[in-house]
Amino acid sequence: xxxxxxxxxxxxxxxxxxxxxxxxxxxxxxxxxxxxxxxxxxxxxxxxxxxxxxxxxxxxxxxxxxxxxxxxxxxxxxxxxxxxxxxxxxxxxxxxxxxxxxxxxxxxxxxxxxxxxxxxxxxxxxxxxxxxxxxxxxxxxxxxxxxxxxxxxxxxxxxxxxxxxxxxxxxxxxxxxxxxxxxxxxxxxxxxxxxxxxxxxxxxxxxxxxxxxxxxxxxxxxxxxxxxxxxxxxxxxxxxxxxxxxxxxxxxxxxxxxxxxxxxxxxxxxxxxxxxxxxxxxxxxxxxxxxxxxxxxxxxxxxxxxxxxxxxxxxxxxxxxxxxxxxxxxxxxxxxxxxxxxxxxx
Amino acid sequence: xxxxxxxxxxxxxxxxxxxxxxxxxxxxxxxxxxxxxxxxxxxxxxxxxxxxxxxxxxxxxxxxxxxxxxxxxxxxxxxxxxxxxxxxxxxxxxxxxxxxxxxxxxxxxxxxxxxxxxxxxxxxxxxxxxxxxxxxxxxxxxxxxxxxxxxxxxxxxxxxxxxxxxxxxxxxxxxxxxxxxxxxxxxxxxxxxxxxxxxxxxxxxxxxxxxxxxxxxxxxxxxxxxxxxxxxxxxxxxxxxxxxxxxxxxxxxxxxxxxxxxxxxxxxxxxxxxxxxxxxxxxxxxxxxxxxxxxxxxxxxxxxxxxxxxxxxxxxxxxxxxxxxxxxxxxxxxxxxxxxxxxxxxxxxxxxxxxxxxx
Lengths: 346, 359
Known about the structure:
In chain A, 39% of the residues lie in helices and 28% in strands. Chain A has helices at residues 2-9, 55-60, 82-96, 117-129, 140-148, 188-203, 209-219, 252-258, 260-275, 279-288, 302-310, 323-333, 335-338, and strands at 13-17, 21-26, 30-36, 39-44, 47-53, 68-71, 74-75, 78-79, 106-111, 134-139, 158-163, 168-174, 177-184, 205-206, 232-239, 245-251, 290-293, 314-316. In chain A, the strands form 5 sheets. A 5-stranded mixed β-sheet of chain A has the order 3-2-1-9-10, with helices on both faces. The radius of gyration of chain A is 21 Å and the shape is flat. The two termini of chain A are 22 Å apart. In chain B, the strands form 2 sheets. A 4-stranded antiparallel β-sheet of chain B has the order 4-1-6-7. Chain B is rod-shaped. Chain B is an alpha+beta fold. Chain B starts with a helix and ends in a 7-residue tail after the last helix. Mean pLDDT of chain B is 69; it is low at 11-17, 167-225 and 233-267. Chain B is built from 10 helices and 8 strands.
């Protein structure tokens, strides 16, 4: 009764709680918030307080003094630090509700399809203690497919590959359910790490996570260019030999080389998923192909590499970064009909 | 790379449609590729590529895939994919967004809410209406009953007139001397009585049907007056005459013992009269022990026993019953409240006091 009254005062939300970015979709308003999943915690006289969340906190990442720590509460698609994650969700709920303190919205949160029951429960409890009246969970590939506009409720197979910050989800969907899904803990973060490791190994230069992400976005490619070195970029970091800051130029070909390992892991996941697909669904997928969503889909030539590896047409969804949030939001809007695609809460 | 707007301008200059399909086709032909080559390279089925070039959007598998194909194809042909997609979206308005309706199991065994509610509401209204109408009729019953005496007043008058005839005729027909004797008796506590036995064929008796039909209805009104009037008459009239029209009209009590169809065609009155002093349950049985008549006599009621052999009486209050044979009281049948069974209704035995049989 009381919660219903609070429900009128609050806007229902769909949250794409991603490893890299958190997107919040508010019912009737669309995506209202897209910020990095970073929280800066200040230690003031032994008491931890939230200093900044989102964009502000991301700028602090890797540049913090001793009494401040910038934390990414999610790793590999799941919550690694419960308290911080809860603070972050609380902050986003308040921000969406213009700091009204008694908001108690209904929330749909998406979870990786490969997450365990314990991890799902952790996400649900974080959202509940952050002030949610009711929490529903949805599996990420389902949300991504709905957000991309795939006909997931039709009796036809659709294959979606969602490459997020922490995980890559490969799933075959039909009739409003997931026929097969595979989640590998390879995503944007692993690509960043691969770039850092490559530069460190080949150039003895240590670059930060932020720099490597920038490199990936600017000149990242899944396969080396046909001829030459491709595009180049100036990168700055610390020389491991001399211990002094240094700048050097890196080429597209080198980055493509560095990304070979995570890319092959993604290809492998897609191939395994195809192997496990029932023949009828495989026939549908051969006809229409694979749809790529998530930030990883924006990596240059990834569709080309996947097309080459699988022999299937590969399409990149419109606005791949928002697919999961849009799909979760659509479930929120069409709660009446799409209720069945949600995971019953624990 | 030739930009897409330039391509389009070229297409328009060449007098062709400015559709995206034409642009794609021109770009492909300029590169010297045929559909099969492109399909092989892009893994997109040739029919979809042809549909894209022909602008036949109905043949494409769906909006998402179609946009994906446009992006892949235009990039492959060296065109600006973003512009191509914008162009395609503006052209392919027929490819609407997917409608998501997950398959839901049909509701099994569940009551059809709306219909059932409607039907039950209607039946509830009908039931209540029916009950209301019925109970309204019941409520009107007392009024009807109340009206009856007024309406029957004419009948009562008619009865009074008819009774004169009956009373006059009765003595003549069969029991004139005894009744006359009774009324002439020095201690006549009995109000003048006319017993009109109901006939199996009432229409055959022209005089009796009216009183027989009417009297039972009149009883409630009469009964209370009955006893008083009996007393009144006793005191006021030392020698009441049975034929007086006014007195019998008020005092007549008819207690009729039905006669069997095979009984004699006379009015059935015998020599024995049973008169109740107190409220008294009586039953008269015939020779075969079959009940002829059962009734509760009120104080003052007189029952005329038909002249048949083998009749027996059962009474629940032997002391409250006066038995008169030929107008004379015979010994009492018992104490008040005593139950008597198998009392032979035989004039001689009653007189002799030997009528009380063993139960």
